[in-house]
Amino acid sequence: DAGIVIIGGGQAGGWAAKTLRDSGYNGKLSVISDEPHDFYERPPLSKAVLLDQDGQLGLTRLFTEEAVAALDIDWHRPLRAEAILPADKTVVLNNGETLPYRQLLIATGGRPRRPEGLWQSHPKVLTLRSWNDAVQLRTQLAQAKTLAIVGGGWIGLEIAASARKMGVAVTVFERQSALCLRSIGAEVSQALLELHQNQGVEVICGCGEITLNDDNGRPQLKSELTESQTFDLVVVGIGVILNLELAEQAGLTVRNGGIVVDDQGRTSDPSIFAVGDVALHSQLGVCLQSWAYAQNQAVTTARSMLDAGQPGYQEDAWLWSDQYSENIQILGIPASGSHCITREDDHSKVYFYLNADNQLVQMVAFNDARTIKLGKRWLAAQRVLDPAQLSDPSFSLMALK
Ligand code: FAD
């Protein structure tokens, strides 16, 4: 039996492999990974790993070494899958080898987007996606006094926070008029702006086109709002290009920038499944690119690969970000026409976005994981909420359980 082949040894690939074995699959399990490492977590790469100057933390593993060995994986690494041939049910690797499969799982994630030209080759212009990227950035940050971050999205802001903790002077350039505008409302954007400004970050929103030049080995940036400025280091955090090429070339249905899957993770080819960043959320129709989705949708899909009668994936969008001492959690996705209600006490602030019927569509909590938990229930149940109760810190939200 050709067994199951997984392309991509990241978070979703790792959880799928573990779940297949935990669910009793004892056939052949192959993983093709272009990274040399065992499965690992990416969220710490922009946070704890950058601050871990003496490298104590080590690889932020998903599972212990023993647990990975127990999965009895036939590893093909570091190697790349170059093509999927659905008619032959094989995968072609970049060493010329072909691997047959009975079922195939695509878990290829994404790679950082970079502008063309010097942005691609300047040694002091970095991006962050992998463990190796993080180690390189950590080393370079330790020697830098000034850092420019191009792109005020979540990863850029987390790197800004880590760099400030290390005493580096940070400038963030954001082309749009506000931070993280694609994933949150204007009120939360403003709170993020103030958070970073209070920590001494210079944030330049609406900066337009940025040009990069070399100034004696150091990167020099000029934007439509600022004169040329030379930095020790530049990090580009302008989003991700999802690794969809294999799926596209194999003729799988790709829409809205992601692989179309049903709630069991099955693509338009019944033998091929997709998980994690590359897989469109089957209800929301967008690629969430979050840790929780990568894990939970992969777990559901792996179970479904073994038994199509398993319950499908159903979960609202949820992600978090840690910046300075703030734990920021985002539940749901933004919807136009919603209105914002805030709730604040000494330690936390919550932004509720409600639709015209006062049902929750999105909420963002600064240091309030408990309210997020309640919000998950309200969102799933489409519960009608009372704005006056939400905004009153003396009203216990637990009463709305
Ligand atoms: P990945 O983890 O990217 O794994 C894909 C793997 O496939 C990679 O190893 C890739 O190299 C490999 N691959 C690709 N193509 C091929 C090929 N052709 N052949 C072989 N191998 C291939 N989410 C949150 O919710 N909260 C956070 O705080 C947060 N922080 C983050 C911080 C950073 C720095 C990053 C990069 C991401 C963060 N995320 C966070 C997002 C989260 O980590 C991702 O959503 C998650 O890793 C996606 O898992 P994945 O398995 O789909 O992709």
Whole-number average pLDDT?
Answer: 97
Percentage beta strand: 25-35%
Measured as a percent range, the helix fraction is: 25-40%
Biggest sheet overview:
5 strands, parallel
What ranges have pLDDT less than 50 throughout 5 or more consecutive residues? none
Gyration radius over CA: 22 Å
Q: Which ions and ligands are bound to the chains?
A: flavin-adenine dinucleotide
**Structural class given helices, strands, pairing?**
alpha/beta
Give a brief rundown of this model.
The protein is an alpha/beta fold and 401 residues long.
What do these coordinates show?
- This is Pyridine nucleotide-disulfide oxidoreductase.
- Pfam families: Pyr_redox_2, Reductase_C.
- Its cofactor is FAD.
- Residues 4-298 form the FAD/NAD(P)-binding domain.
- Residues 318-400 form the Reductase C-terminal domain.
- By secondary structure, the chain is of the alpha/beta class.
- The chain contains 11 helices and 25 strands.
- The chain has helices spanning 11-22, 48-51, 65-70, 118-121, 131-143, 154-165, 186-198, 245-249, 291-306, 369-381, 387-391; strands at 4-7, 29-32, 74-76, 81-85, 90-93, 98-100, 103-106, 110-112, 125-126, 146-150, 169-174, 202-205, 210-215, 218-223, 229-230, 233-236, 240-242, 254-255, 258-259, 272-274, 318-323, 326-332, 339-344, 349-354, 360-366.
- The strands form 7 sheets. Strands 3-2-1-7-20 form a 5-stranded parallel beta sheet, covered by helices on one side. The protein has a 5-stranded parallel beta sheet with strand order 9-16-10-11-12. Strands 21-22-25-24-23 form a 5-stranded antiparallel beta sheet.
- Strand 21 and strand 22 (326-332) form a beta hairpin.
- Helix 1 runs parallel beside helix 9 (291-306).
- The radius of gyration is 22 Å and the shape is globular.
- The model has no long low-confidence stretch (mean pLDDT 97).
- Residues 7-13, 32-35, 42-43, 45-46, 80-81, 107-109, 128-129, 155, 243, 246, 276-277, 289-292, 294, 319-321 line the site of flavin-adenine dinucleotide.
